[in-house]
Amino acid sequence: MSQPAPMTLARALFSALAWAAQPLLRRKLHRRSLAEPGYAEAMPERFGHYQPPTLGQDGRGLWVWIHAVSLGEARAAGILVKALREQMPDMRLLLTQSTATGRAEGQKLLREGDVQVWLPWDTLGATSRFIEQFRPAVGVLMETEIWPNLIAGCANAGIPLALANARLNAKSEAGALKLKSLSRAAYGALAAVWAQTEGDARRLRNVGAHVSAVLGNLKFDVQPDALQMAHAAQWRAALPKPVLLFASSREGEEALFLDALKSLADKAGAVQWLIVPRHPQRFDEVAQLLSDKGFAVSRRSQWQELPPLPDGAIWLGDSLGEMALYYGLSSAALMGGSFAPLGGQNLIEALACGCPVLLGPHTFNFSQASEEAVKAGAALRVANMNSALSEAMALVSNPERLNAARQSGKQMMQGNRGAAGATARAVIELMKAPE
Predict the structure, then answer these.
(1) Active site amino acids
(2) What is the pLDDT of residues 152-192, one digit of tens each?
(3) CATH superfamily name and code, 226-415
(4) What is the spatial distance between Cα 101 and Cα 140, in angstroms, rounded to a whole number?
């Protein structure tokens, strides 16, 4: 269990800055809400002002609190929530997020009696109001979320707070060490840290965390949406060309992709190209970029029962919550975030859907999973975007090689399962541990 967390000079300075930054946060949320209306929802919660729980205050012990900051963490949280409900059928979930896409994804996890709110901004007042309002029996922060006042507040209130599916890349480790007077106290006040890999565990210990165990990556326990996979199989059977996907593309990468596509000339027409941007607020921007580069665009939001037959247009996946459909529809995928120095995106969902991936040089956010996939033959590392397109087309034109890559991905998934059950058991043990 964690020890009470005293107010250090570093945290006092951080608290003062967080308090002073509240007007800037309000303006930022307002600007974001113009593109994503979800950011305007329940804004007082961002500052620790919550409506009374609809079921009344029954006292401590009601809530299993999980914080999943954004979309990827919300999906990982969904895997953990499923395992927790299997072991604690009467569990009541308190779910917090910080982004509109994470909040929308998190709504899928709620049952009657559960509550979803925004995580408060990390001021002393807001975090105190959050803790006093809900008094969770246990708290779980997903993957990377470290907030000094929130963690200290839970430690001082006797609420066990863990970091689950924890990861820390070398860049973030260096940043934490630069602020070690603040970060070491925050990591050290956590009641438990369950790391994804031994490398993550080593880096987490180096910044002050007490790593309890290495439990693996929850995302290997993902089960693709069966209905979406069925639709994908139906659509693939009706298409005369294989589909190649650029998944979770990030700003700047689409232009690289389109320039590389033009360099292929007539060869590019052998497949159907599909782009799914990582951030939904960029859907219109990417559609405009495609038009400006001289490409016709067919948007998923305008499709009917089936996608249009290939006619030279690039498909734009401008929908939320359909990655299983896109991966299931595609013969292979280029992984966004890896062709610019952004650290890459999660490739595990693609492998779970039987979709081999091509990785650019930048995968430091998912280094172990990426290297394991390359070693297993489920992923292919390339030097740049031009090589990615050429290698992807070569892969889909070789059915034997493509099938081998798919099978390697399935075997890799199977060999890494089990983190969800182990993490759920650890959460329950932490909740039951004496203070």
Answers:
(1) 73
(2) 999 999 999 999 999 999 999 999 999 999 999 999 999 99
(3) Glycogen Phosphorylase B; (3.40.50.2000)
(4) 19
